[in-house]
Amino acid sequence: MVKERARILVVGGGYVGMYTALRLQRKLKQELRRGDVEITVVTPDPYMTYQPFLPEAAAGSISPRHVVVPLRRVLDHCTVIIGEATAIDHAKRTATLTTLATEEEGTGARQLTYDELVLAPGSISRTLPIPGLADHAIGFKTVEEAIGLRNHVIEQMDIASSTRDPAIRDAALTFVFVGGGYAGVEALGELEDMARYTARYYHNVQPEDMKWILVEASDRILPEVGAEMGRYTVTELRRRNIDVRLNTRLESCADRIAVLSDGARFPTRTVVWTAGVKPHPILAASDLPLTDRGRLKCTAELTIEGVTHAWAAGDAAAVPDVTADEPGKETAPNAQHAVRQAKVLGDNIAHALKGEPLETYSHKYVGSVASLGLHKGVAHVYGRKLKGYPAWFMHRVYHLSRVPTFNRKARVLAEWTLSGLFKREIVSLGSLEHPRAEFELAAGGKPPHDPTNDPKGSS
Q1: In what order do the strands lie in the sheet with 377-381?
Q2: Which CATH class is domain 6-125+278-353?
Q3: What is the topology classification, in CATH, of domain 133-275+367-421?
Q4: pLDDT tens for residues 342-380?
Q5: Do 11 and 282 contact (CB within 8 A), yes or no?
Q6: What would you give as a GO molecular function for this chain, any one (predicted)?
């Protein structure tokens, strides 16, 4: 029995936000029905993106709509507000929100009061002041970016196939990926695999005409799968004629020329930035305690240290790793921990409302899997190292088991089955990003989008 009426505010609709709200729906079913509890979820998007599937969505193996989970469908006992929390005053238990209607209303941001706060906004791309980066690069954190990148790669192949200018052709067929973590390596592996397959349908574009370059500032890639599997991945990528440059940084991509710290220069129309993430700005706009790296100081029970009625997990939270041998170590900010933390977080909020003792989050990291394209991958799970087809198969099985809802599991499995029976789709739908272009031209407006004049290369 909940002691008094509780208003729970969940900031963020990603892994932690969605799974926590889902858990609370189940644990507090009777209280929600009686009106003793209300749960509000504030999120910039009406869906949760299952990010491990973004590379496969970019490669066309999974439809974009199956990579996302509609929040209103799964959180049917919560109030979902599409907007952003711009400030939090936990001392007063208020959050400042802007919504899609804020600008049109002209009344300014709204204030939302709460009793319990779950802060799970995730992270944003960590960028550096590199000349040309903001003008020409594309990230790889959202489903829109993944599909935009797929369209862009095929569009560049169309440009290369139709131009008579060798310089334009060379730049169109040069693809630079910055960052050797999961996002960069998997995106590069899947897209190179897709582009190599697509080239068979072009009379004048061969796989060897394309340059794929991976730039990593450290001396290894995929640190999560271990040093040995990381070295294997480098060897595998280089065997596919992918230029892997370790201990190298991107110094400029101004004027569509990627300049690297080792002196190399590549005219290119494609720069994909996946070099890390940083805490969401809402953390700094709150009165909650932060670590030196800008993450929320948390306890092993997933409460925010030093304050009451505030909780956090996932990328935004520095959670002590109670399974680690060395003191002071924190859990890694990855999906494996986020999903499990959300379960404990939801349970602990229910325990707190009912006056029950809290649980400690304890999960030993079991390993990692990564896809390098169709039937190719690496894995380091429970001390066992796998590569090639077994690792790729384990990658698919693991993530199929993790993707939320039976609906999504069934749809993804059906798509994989169909893609195994039929040929890949190689269509670029770049016009989706400019749906009014043709009508504007017909109505006497500006001419339709020309990808050759777009400073971002339609990405």
Answers
A1: 367-371, 377-381, 384-387
A2: alpha beta
A3: FAD/NAD(P)-binding domain (3.50.50)
A4: 999 999 999 999 999 999 999 877 778 888 988 889 888
A5: yes
A6: oxidoreductase activity
- Domain positions in the chain: 6-125+278-353, 133-275+367-421
